[in-house]
Amino acid sequence: MTVAAQARLDAILERLEEATDRDGLQQVTEELRDFLDVRHVVYHWVSAAGEQYGVGTYASEWVERYVAEGYLRIDPVVQGCYQRFHPVDWKRLDWSGKATRNFRNEAIEYGLGNQGYSVPVRGPGGQFAMFTVNDHCDDDAWAQFAEDNRRSLILIAHSFNEKALDFEPDRQPDAAPNLSPRELDALTLIAVGHSRAQVAETLTISEHTLRAYIESARFKLGAVNTVHAVARALSRGLIVI
């Protein structure tokens, strides 16, 4: 990502942080759609109490159709995200059933693209969310988009979720975790794309010791895995890449 593009994304995420209501979140999804140059950007939140809402750029007619037909039951994207912690490329999901094929074809008729990428996010007490980008292009172009933007999409997803959690009633703000210098170094090197072996060599420690640092950082951040820990550290400004 160029310096100019990173500055633009930082400005959008700053507006996300300053949002005080759903309209503010909606405006950010529209800005991100234009920034990423995709058809749609959507964030869907299910609170710990079961309350749901979504913001995004899908046509209202499609949203109404989706709800009226109960497509939540058969949507492979939702099912896939519930079963995974890592980002989900839609083309890797099972679309072989007749109902899911018809669902996909109808979604495309309503303006969704043939490609999608969703980041599942899990929060405290059962809170769950999905951040999705959607576009129309061939598989090679989409694979390149995902490769170029994967880290940014994870960061954006967790930034959205941090803001959504602010809207939870009676929720107390989390204290900033106190990560050690070694924990910060490990997460930073992982964030820039180093393998665990490369990180251990750079820090002149064993991979066993590195694993202990990563697990300690993950626990302090309340993260479900290493990718989640890196995303939370990035979104809270604990590490910078």
Polypeptide structure, described:
By secondary structure, this protein is α+β, with helices and mostly antiparallel strands. The protein folds into 2 domains: 3-166, Beta-Lactamase (2-Layer Sandwich); 181-235, Arc Repressor Mutant, subunit A, CATH 1.10.10.10. Helix content is 54%, strand content 12%. The chain has 10 helices and 5 strands. It has helices spanning 3-18, 22-36, 60-68, 76-82, 98-109, 139-166, 181-191, 196-203, 207-221, 226-235; strands spanning 40-46, 52-56, 88-89, 115-122, 128-135. The chain has a 5-stranded antiparallel sheet with strand order 2-1-5-4-3, sandwiched between helices. β4 and β5 form a beta hairpin. α1 (3-18) packs antiparallel against α2, α6 packs across α10 (226-235) and α7 (181-191) crosses α9 (207-221). It starts with a helix and ends in a 6-residue tail after the last helix. The model has no long low-confidence stretch (mean pLDDT 87). Keywords: DNA-binding, Transcription, Transcription regulation. GO terms for molecular function: DNA binding. Residues 172-237 form the HTH luxR-type domain. It comes from Roseovarius spongiae. InterPro entries: Sig_transdc_resp-reg_C-effctor (IPR016032), TF_LuxR_autoind-bd_dom (IPR005143), TF_LuxR_autoind-bd_dom_sf (IPR036693), Tscrpt_reg_LuxR_C (IPR000792), WH-like_DNA-bd_sf (IPR036388).
